[in-house]
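#struct-queue
[09:14] JT: dropping the first one here, sequence first, then the structure tokens:
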Amino acid sequence: MVFVYKMLFGLVDLKFSDYFTLRTNSTTRGHDYKLFLAYSRLNVRKHFFSERVVSVWNNLENNVINFSNIVFQEVVTML
């Protein structure tokens, strides 16, 4: 989770767009940083890091994704 956060905000030297795509529709509930889960027909792809963390990231609550406070770090350490 921390690595996804670092990739999202450019704190590591990896392009976020190479691994993830942000959801573009605004009708979703929850936070504004939901990731898009692309369809993968191969089992190999389904087990990649970029595929495994999407559902966990998208299920985080809005107050956890409020990155202006330390709540994110506390919740991640509990996972």
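[09:21] JT: and here's the second one, same format:
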Amino acid sequence: MKSAFDKIAAGLEDAIAYAEGDMSRGRRATVDVKAIRAATRKTQAAFAATYHLPVGSVRDWEQGRSTPDSGSAVLLKMIAVDPHGVERIIARVPAEAIG
């Protein structure tokens, strides 16, 4: 069994390798934004407006130029499970609270 030190050292080595470009040594959460949006049958602009996301971010996520942060990833996963439920929840949030 590995010691706590060995586990920490291995994790640090993986982090350094990943930071230096070795993508095989890290994990990234993935969200298929395009598939989620397509399932809602909305355009990028309509999807962004419905779920209060910047349309540029949706475009960048779909084209692989950037990835959703953890909060956006959670929202996107919720949309994938129950888009109408998320829409109902958003409708109950006061507009000034959304921004």
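[09:30] RK: nice, looked through the second one.
[09:31] RK: The chain has a mean pLDDT of 90.
[09:31] JT: good to know. Residues 1-28 form one domain.
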